[in-house]
Amino acid sequence: PAAERNDFIRQIVRDDLASGKHAAIRTRFPPEPNGYLHIGHAKAICLDFGVAREFGGVCNLRFDDTNPAKEDPEYVAAIQDDVRWLGFDWAELRHASDYFGVFYLAAEKLVRDGHAFVCDLSAEQVREYRGTLTEPGRNSPFRGRSVEENLDLLRRMRAGEFADGARTLRAKIDMASGNINLRDPALYRIKKVAHQNTGDAWPIYPMYDFAHSLSDAIEGITHSLCTLEFEDHRPLYDWCVDKVDLAGNPDLLGPLAQAGLPNMAAKPRQIEFSRLFLNYNITSKRKLIALVSEGLVDGWDDPRMNTLQGLRRRGFTPASLRLFVERLGISKQNSVTDYGQLEAAVRDDLDAKAPRRLAVVDPIKLTITNLDDAYHETLRFSNHPKNPEMGERDVPFSNTLWIDRDDFFEVPPKGFHRLSPGAEVRLRGVGIVRCDEIVKNGERVVELRCTLDASTRPGGTGADRKVKGTIHWVCAKHAVEAEIRLYDRLFAVADPDDDSDGKTYKDHINPDSRRIVTGYVEPAAAQAQPEDRMQFERTGYFVADRRDHTGARPVFNRIVSLRDTWAS
Ligand code: ATP
Ligand code: MG
Ligand code: MG
Questions:
Q1: Which of 11, 381, 406, 528 sits CB 3.0–4.6 Å from 532 for a disulfide?
Q2: 558 CB less than 6 Å from ligand 1?
Q3: Which residues does the UniProt record annotate as the domain Glutamyl/glutaminyl-tRNA synthetase class Ib anti-codon binding (predicted)?
Q4: 3-class SS at 163?
Q5: Atom of ligand 1 nearest to the CA of 48
Q6: Is 191 exposed, middle or buried (0-12, 13-18, 19+ CB in 10 A)?
Q7: Ligand nearest, relative to CA of residue 325
Q8: SS3 assignment, position 135
Q9: How many degrees, rounded to 5, is the angle at CA 545 between CA 516 and CA 565?
Q10: CATH superfamily ID and name for 359-472
């Protein structure tokens, strides 16, 4: 609820509504379709869509598709899926490319008003002229061109007369500005590349700051939320909005009206917040793309990837990601978040929701010698220890069980309270067994032969008898063989981006980040539908794999262990 969230952005929005500055608010989430969304985007999505929802406003999904060389319809489709999966929906689906006609008219207006000029300097010369943080830049020799000449050249740029990179349209602001973004930044460049939406219609493409600020103004965005690295761009954002003044120049919106889009033009306000940095992770799209294209992971939805597709396949719930973001809060302070917090969020979400199941990941046989071979019983187990509403299920039981190899030691370390020769342990929901004999195949223990103390069965006279350990098991005669994919963190070091020692993130992939084993699950677990999540008691939270799981051939991914094994 909005009342509980009180970060500085929500405070601004609340004030703007209270003062009547805005009758309703409008936000947008503006991904560039040049890669899949990742955990960092989840923070922006929850903020952009969340603020709109909490304050009764709306949020647009806008593809910032102004760089045709890197963009792909595959990403456009996946991004829509991901936003919906996270639990949000947009008022309008827009593309910056919907506004190319408006941007161009705005550029002509800036030229006519003497606020922009066509520059013939090469990219390298522009860099030289720009100056540095400590040195002012120098004016381009083309800065004094007349309005007529600029207009003629801009129209010929638009008509495709010049080669890529031959000219740019630049804002005429201040080459001595302390803010380098204001040193006559480029507004348009020549790039003869086909665009996924507009085809070959445009040989020129708008630059980010120009397109982004005007897109916000066109859509009537009231609060344009973006990450801190754009703080220094805000003066340019405001410059574009003010100098073009779409609200005061409705004729510039002609191309929108032709496309049947309403005139919503208004003056937006950009507000910056800190990015998410997560240790043990990388979030650069370029690096994520390299992991996939170089085969270091199994595609975009590899369950170790921090893409929303990867997190989904790993078993993270949308609610757990929203909870994680909620706990991060919103501020202007950049900091690194511990990956353990993401794992804690999914544990906290699933603890209440996930039914409990029995599964054995590394099986060793346990035979109860005082039950005969034909013995069979159906036990009733509750699905959740704290929530009777989640019901009960049948769990088959016989004289032959699988238990986890971890729960047995031939020579137990001090303080070990589970099975070892001569020791007793409680089998969950059954009673106390004693290990009388072990069977070996060479060095390897292959079977534990035990007796069950019948008086300790539920309801029996010795049911309350204390032993220190309780272990889980599955009935070997009914359990279903399952492929169990034990995932862990993709990177073995906290800062995989740190290449100061000559190693790169590719050298830091955790070799134990995926271990595939064959285990056994109780029948109720095998019946899961793809994407059903459950707790394998004492082992961790697991999900039936979204793509590969079937009832006949179960496949489970470990979402997270029950406890943080990485905490120092
Ligand atoms: P890259 O530079 O790797 O391409 P980007 O930040 O440019 O990433 P976009 O697709 O443009 O990616 O991002 C869309 C929105 O998501 C932007 O508003 C951006 O600020 C936000 N965003 C991206 N990464 C993060 C992050 N790590 N934390 C918070 N917000 C983020
Ligand atoms: Mg980018
Ligand atoms: Mg971007």
A1: 528
A2: no
A3: 354-453
A4: coil
A5: 18
A6: middle
A7: 1
A8: coil
A9: 55
A10: Ribosomal Protein L25; Chain P (2.40.240.10)
Q: How far apart are CA 525 and CA 547, in angstroms?
A: 17
Distance 392 CA to ligand 1 centre (A): 45
Question: Helix, strand or coil for residue 181?
Answer: helix
Question: Does the annotation place 228 within a ligand binding site?
Answer: no
Residue 206 CA, ligand 2 centroid: distance in Å: 15
The reply, when asked if residue 44 is annotated as ligand binding, is yes
What does pTM read for this prediction?
0.95
Ligand that comes closest to the CA of residue 275? 1
Residue minimizing CA distance to atom 26 of ligand 1: 40
With 80 as the cut, is the pLDDT of residue 568 above it? no
Catalytic residue numbers, as ranges = 32, 275, 285
Rounded Cα distance, 355 and 384, in Å: 6
Contact 145 CB / ligand 1 (< 6 Å)? no
- Domain 275-358+481-568 matching CATH 2.40.240.10: the answer reads yes
**Which ligand 1 atom is the nearest neighbour of the CA of 276?**
28
Per-residue pLDDT band for 2 (boundaries 50, 70, 90) equals very low
- 226 Cβ below 6 A of ligand 1: yes
CATH number of 2-273: 3.40.50.620
CA distance 166 to 190: 7
Could you tell me if 256 and 263 are in contact, meaning their C-beta atoms sit under 8 angstroms apart?
yes
Question: Counting beta carbons within 10 angstroms of the beta carbon of residue 108, is it exposed (0 to 12), middle (13 to 18) or buried (19 or more)?
Answer: middle
Question: What is the crossing angle of helices 8-18 and 39-54, to 10°?
Answer: 20
303 marked ligand binding residue:
no
Q: What is the pLDDT of residue 188?
A: 98
- Could you tell me which residues come within 8 angstroms of residue 454 by beta carbon, excluding any fewer than 6 positions away? 370, 431, 460
| Residue 32 token pair | 């560039």
What ipTM goes with this model? 0.95
223 appears as a binding residue in the annotation: no
Q: Do 359-472 and 275-358+481-568 have the same topology in CATH?
A: yes
d(CA 557, CA 219): 42
Q: What's the mean pLDDT in 6-10?
A: 95
Does the pLDDT value for residue 233 go beyond 50?
yes
Atom number in ligand 1 closest to CA 275: 28
| Mutation to probe ligand 1, out of 70, 207, 227, 336 (largest number of atoms < 8 A from CB) | 227
